[in-house]
Amino acid sequence: MVETDLTKIWVYLSASPLLGLTVTLVAYLAAHRLYVLANQNPLLNPVITAILMLIAFLKLTGTSYEDYFAGGQFVHFLLGPATVALAVPLYQQFSRLRAVLVPVVVALLVGVVVGAVSSITIAWLFGASPETQLSLAPKSVTAPVAMGISEQIGGIPSLTAVLVVVTGILGALMGTRLFALLRIRDDRVKGIAMGVAAHGIGTARAFHVSPVMGAFSGLAMALSAFATSALLPWLVDCLRSVYGGWL
Amino acid sequence: MQFLNGITLLLVYQLVGEVTVRLFGLPIPGPVLGMVLLFLTLVIRKRSSASLDTAANGLLSHLSLLFVPAGVGMMVYFSRILEEWLPIALSLVLGTAITMVVTAGAMLATQKLLTRGQRRDG
C-alpha cells in the first residue's frame, strides 16, 4: 500500500518542474556548505560537487536529463539577466579600466585567438573527432554564447555547454595557483586572464579574491564573448585550410 | 520592491538585446549586447541606482549556481567523453592554462611597453 502511494507521489513529482528546481537548489546549498566547511578548498568548488550530486541523484532515481531540465531551466534562464548585470560592476570599475584600456584590448585579442587555436590543435593532435574539436573551440566563452558559436561552426551545442562548465571549473582551480607561481600580483591582470580563459565560473572565483579582480574578470568575459563570436568562424576556416580534411 | 525594479530593468535590457540581435542578424548573443547597452546607459547617466545594484549583486553573488543545470548535461555525453577522454582532458587542461598565461603575459608586456614609451616621451 505504502509503496503504491509513494509511486503515485513520485509519478507526480517526476513530471513537475518543482523537483528539478528544488534538487538543484538543495544540491548547490549543500555543496556550498561543504566548500565553506573545507575552508574554501578549490577542489571542492560548489559547481562540480553540486553537478556530481545531481547526476548521482538522477541516475539513482532513473530520471532523464530532459525531465530534470524542465525544472533546472528556471535557474539556467537566469544566466541571461546575470550576463546583463555584469554591466554594474563593470561601470563601478570604469575609471580603473580606462587607465589600462590598451593593454586590456591587446590581452583580450591575443587570449581569444590563442584559446581557440590551442584547444582545437591539442584535441586534433590527440585524435579527437572533428565534432569534438569544434565543440571544444568556444570552451572559454560563457555558456549561452558558446552554445550559439558551437552550433554556428558545426560543433554539438550541449556538449559545448558541458565543456564550458568544466573549463570554468579548471580555470577557477588553476588560476590563483598559476598567478602565484608566475608572481603576477596585479588584480587587474589576474582578472582579465581569468575572464578570458574561464568566463563566469572563473569570474565567480575572482569575486572571492577581490572586487577588482572580479570586475576585470567580468569585463574580460563580456568582451571575449564579443570577440570570440566575431573571430571564431573565421579562425576555424583558417585552421581548416591548415589541418586539411580533419576539421 | 527594489529587487523587483532591478531585475525588471535587467530583463528589459536583455529583451532589447535579443530583439536587436535578431533584427539586424548580429553574430553576438542578445544578453551580451544587453550588457553593453546597460553599461553605456550607466556611463551616460553617470550613476547606477540602488535597485539595479541590489538585483545585480544578488544575481552575481550566486553566479556559480546558474551553471549547475547545464553542467548536469554531462550525463548525456558520458560515452562520448569516455571514448575521447584523453584529447578532451588535455585540450581542457592545457588549453585553459595556456590561454590564462598568454593572456596575462600579453597584458603585462603591453603595459611595460606603454610605460617605457611614456618614459621616453617624458
Can you tell me about this structure?
The complex is a heterodimer of chains A (247) and B (122). By secondary structure, chain A is mainly α. Chain A folds into 2 domains: 76 residues, no CATH class; 163 residues, no CATH class. In chain A, helix 8 runs antiparallel to helix 9 and helix 10 crosses helix 11. Chain A starts with a helix and ends with a helix. Chain B is mainly alpha-helical and 122 residues long. Helix content of chain B is 80%, strand content 0%. Chain B has 6 helices and no strands. In chain B, helix 1 crosses helix 2. The model of chain B has no long low-confidence stretch (mean pLDDT 89).
**How many individual β-strands of chain B?**
0
Strand percent estimate of chain B? under 5%
Broad structural category of chain A: mainly alpha
Amino- and carboxy-terminal Cα gap of chain A? 58 Å
Shape of chain B: extended
| Average predicted local confidence, pLDDT of chain A | 89
Q: What radius of gyration of chain B results from the CA coordinates? A: 21 Å
* pLDDT < 50 runs, ≥5 residues of chain A: none
Task: Determine the oligomeric state from the structure.
Answer: heterodimer
Most strands sheet of chain B: none
Kindly report the average pLDDT value of chain B. 89
Number of strands of chain A: 0
Task: Count structural domains of chain B.
Answer: 2
The amount of helix of chain A comes to over 70%
Strand content of chain A: under 5%
**How many helices of chain A does DSSP assign?**
13
List segments of chain B where confidence is low: pLDDT < 50 over at least 5 consecutive residues.
none
Greatest contact pair? A-B, 111 and 70 residues
Helical proportion of chain B, percent range: over 70%
How many domains of chain A, as an integer?
2
